[in-house]
Design goal:
mainly beta; seven-stranded mixed β-sheet; four-stranded antiparallel β-sheet; 57% strand
Length: 120
């Protein structure tokens, strides 16, 4: 299987920046996409950004596309989320996700999440 570990979360002041990292380990051959979702305490988990492993094409949610950037280091099985001009509304647990495509055991995998808290 695949394990994902996020890092880089923490407390940041509004207007500040933070960079999240996620590393994948295990059976990562066949990675199709990697990306980020977030979930605030009383809300559903929402899409933030994703990157195609083969082409590098990115998809970013409209709510953050002017402030967040997703990138990857394919050789190290890592994906990053650069978050700028952070707002209180960005406070959430951020989850890393990967989609593995294989003939018999492809699947989606999720990290445990990293908490981002944006304070006034």
């Amino acid at each position: 299987q695949v394990q994902l570990v996020e890092s880089g979360g923490g407390l940041v002041q509004a207007g500040g920046s933070l960079r999240l990292s996620c590393v994948a380990s295990g059976r990562t051959l066949g990675t199709y996409t990697m990306g980020w979702f977030r979930q605030a305490p009383g809300n559903e988990r929402k899409f933030v950004a994703a990157i195609s492993w083969s082409s590098g094409d990115t998809d970013v949610a409209d709510s953050v596309k002017d402030r967040f950037t997703i990138s990857s280091d394919n050789a190290q099985n890592m994906v990053y989320l650069q978050m700028n001009s952070l707002k209180s509304e960005d406070t959430a647990v951020y989850y890393c996700k990967t989609r593995i495509t294989r003939r018999f055991d492809g699947a989606d995998y999720w990290g445990k999440g990293t908490l981002v808290t944006v304070s006034p």
